[in-house]
Design goal:
It is built from four helices and no strands. The protein has helices spanning 24-51, 58-81, 87-108, 113-138. The longest helix has 28 residues, at 24-51. It starts with 23 loop residues before the first helix and ends in a 10-residue tail after the last helix.
Length: 148
């Protein structure tokens, strides 16, 4: 008797197969489009924090774009590199990026270095706990999805 192909949304005994409603092109656009949009928002936010309600200058605009480009490059690098790591380092890489990004924005708002570092470490720890729990409960030790 021949076996039928697994239907979308049904368990194959090992991993649940879910339908993918987006094309590969859409996934590629999102993979790079989301960091670009987030980078532009982040750069604007950093520039607005730095000028502290004052007038917009050329240096402020340059700072915003430099911050945006740096954020975009690092975000794409983390998105490409992190999934190749074991779940502990995967979680740490993503949480360190989130904590550093938050700490930089916080420091641009005029906070002291000690307060910025403290807040950054708290955010890093919270994000690490969430990511580690997610990867620990959804992957085996080698990064393969667990059966559901």
């Amino acid at each position: 008797m021949a076996h039928a192909a697994p239907r979308p949304g049904r368990s194959t005994g090992r991993v649940t197969v879910t339908p993918d409603v987006f094309s590969e092109r859409t996934h590629t656009l999102a993979r790079f489009g989301i960091p670009v949009v987030l980078g532009l928002v982040y750069g604007y936010w950093a520039a607005a924090n730095r000028r502290d309600g004052g007038e917009i200058t050329g240096w402020n605009i340059l700072f915003g774009f430099a911050t945006a480009i740096t954020f975009m490059v690092l975000c794409i690098a983390v998105a490409v590199l992190a999934p190749r790591l074991k779940r502990e380092l995967h979680s740490l890489t993503k949480s360190a990026f989130a904590g550093a990004a938050f700490g930089f924005l916080y420091s641009q708002a005029g906070a002291t270095v000690l307060r910025s570092v403290t807040m950054s470490l708290l955010i890093t720890a919270a994000v690490f706990a969430v990511f580690f729990y997610r990867y620990y409960t959804h992957e085996d030790g080698e990064g393969n999805p667990l059966p559901r």
